[in-house]
Amino acid sequence: MSKVCTAQEAVALIQPGQTVASVGVIGWLTPDALLGALAQRFRDTGSPRDLTFFFPVSVGDALGIKGMDHVAIEGLMKRVVSGNYLNALDPATGKRPEMMRLIRENRVEAYCWPIGATMHWLREVARRGPGYLTPIGIGSYIDPRQQGGKYTERAREDLVRLHSIDGREYLHYPTWPLNVGFIRATSADEHGNLSFEDEPITSSALALALAVKASGGTVIAQVRKLVPRRSRSVHEVRVPGELVDHVVVAPEPMMTTGIRYDDRYLGRQIFDGRTTERLPQGADKVIARRAAAEVRPGVVTIFGFGASSDVPTVMMEDGAFADDGLLRYNFTTEHGPFGGVVMSGWQFSANMYPEALIDGPSQFDFIDGGNCEAAALAFAQFDRAGSVNVSRFGAANPGPGGFIDIAYNARELVFTGTFTTAGLGVDVGDGRLTIQREGKVRKFVERVDEITYPLLRNVAERGQKAKIVTERAVFAVEPDGLVLTEVAPGIDAKTQVIDLMDCPPHRVLDPLPRMADRLFRD
After folding, report:
1. Where do the catalytic residues lie (predicted)?
2. Strand partners, 28
3. Distance CA 257, CA 265 (A)
């Protein structure tokens, strides 16, 4: 009996009240045809209602690849658990994703877990274990003594618990069954064997399929094409057909946002390390260039989403990768690519010109095992207690992504971001920085809106080293607080830095060094 069917036939199997899990990382690997078909069935028939959705990573971009925004419909979605949420404004409408609206208006039971937890939790479901146990996240927003990962008032059930074993505290994520799994691959044969030859990442595809089958559920795979059985090398088939119940062919999907297909993400082109493209001069470029000075050859360095992912781009622009220079650097992201150039914006997650790839759960084994010595991460707020927030601020609820696991396990941390936000305007040139318009929102605050990572506590207790890099100042994070270590040429340290901080530095270097003027020259 053929496993091939239409998307409409596949989603017709989903029953009210079930739990649906879906793979996908922003625009990468998103089974958009399946999510869209499920949403259309609900609009046409009013069924199935009250579904729980589990997204290990935010799925889709809510623009051309709608992903989770397809199913962000009140009545269809009762509960959602995700490793992060889409937050970008639609350039055409100026609106945030529909998923954000449901969360802000308390229309669904919304929970947000660190991606390390969502990935490893799938393994516990797959082996029918009692749950995922980890010390990562203690003292942060996911700790039940904070908010337990609850993102709306409707989210009342405690999905994360606190336990003590041999005097050490752990967070416990109990398992629950997954009834339906959506995964995406490149090719399938008649038996359902899946290969990923045109996908730059595989994320949680295998782990999700294993978890759904262990729950007695149904796995539906969206693929680009059908191929004859036994036509591929066994090393190409990453998900065996025994784990796949139905196959839906959706030819010509987007590889990711704005990219139909580009084999540079598959390691199929040799890179000479040179580029003629240049980032526009501005605050973000200054920050990336200063953070790049902290990146060392031969050190495994992991980059997070946001401002920090611009660092490899400016390194490439400034010639650091010429003459095989890229081979001197060991770059990765939380989604499994090794080597090559970490991309920014919607192309983040997969690397261009990668050398190796592992899946999502294995990558978090790598991260949690302490194998990323250095990390560059963005920040949205820093407070007097030494906590960093990137997960929820103002009207935005993006969640932490892989931030917590990366921050907890790296030995050296560089946090990047503008000094203020919401309207900040700067002029960069002639080796100096001029503030034309100050941002309306301060980022160095008395108390963060949400604790994504208790940085100072880990610097003091575990000996982590950390710096904060902005366009106008650089700070070291020491056990007793912030130390102002550099200020930009053209900036007055008192009136344009210290006086704009609700949590001023504990100490200021005297004399106070200037940031290198080359950072402010194109």
Report:
1. 334 (5-glutamyl coenzyme a thioester intermediate)
2. 25
3. 13
Beta-carbon neighbour count of residue 194 at 10 Å?
Answer: 28
Active site residue 334: yes
402 with 136: CB under 8 angstroms? no
Looking only at the bridges linking them, the beta strands covering 194-195 and 218-223 are unpaired
DSSP state of 520: G
Contact 426/436 with Cβ under 8 angstroms? Answer: yes
**Whole-structure pTM over 0.90, yes or no?**
yes
d(CA 474, CA 289): 12
Residue 513 DSSP class = P
Identify how many contiguous H helices and E strands the chain contains and give both numbers: 10, 34
Q: Which of 199, 294, 334, 471 is catalytic?
A: 334
Three-state SS string over 294-315 comes to CCCCCCEEEECCCHHHHHHHHH
Angle, nearest 10°, between helix axes 115-126 and 205-214? 40
Three-state DSSP at 122 gives helix
| Cβ–Cβ under 8 Å, residues 394 and 441 | yes
Pick from 102, 115, 122: which is nearest to 25 by CA? Answer: 115
- Encode 226-249: b = buried (16+ Cβ within 10 Å), e = exposed: ebeeeeeeeeebbbebebbbbbbb
pLDDT at 233 over 90: yes
| 420 in Cβ contact with 438 (< 8 Å) | yes
pLDDT of residue 237: 98
- Cα–Cα distance, 458 to 386 (Å, whole number): 10
**DSSP secondary structure string for all residues of 244-288:** -SEEEE--S--SBTTBS--GGGGT-S---S-----PPSSHHHHHH
Are 123 and 207 a contacting pair, CB within 8 Å? yes
Total residue count of the chain as it appears in this document: 522
3-state secondary structure of 483: strand
Structure tokens at 255: 């590889």
Over residues 225-229, the mean pLDDT reads 97
The residues near 231 (Cβ < 8 Å, ≥ 6 apart) are 189
Q: What is the pLDDT of residue 38?
A: 98
Quote the tokens at residue 55: 């997204």
Record the tokens describing residue 363, joined without a space. Answer: 């990558």
Q: What is the mean pLDDT of the chain?
A: 96
pLDDT at 255: 96
| Residue-range domains of the chain with CATH | 7-253 (3.40.1080.10), 283-519 (3.40.1080.10)
Sign of CA pseudo-dihedral 296, 298, 299, 301: positive
Contact 59, 71 (CB under 8 A): no
DSSP track, 349-403: TSEES-SEE--HHHHHHHHHTT---EEEEE-SEEETT-EEE-S-BTTB----TTH
- Report how far apart, in Å, the C-alpha atoms of 342 and of each of 57, 109, 132, 257, 417 are: 18, 34, 30, 16, 18
AA identity, residue 163: H
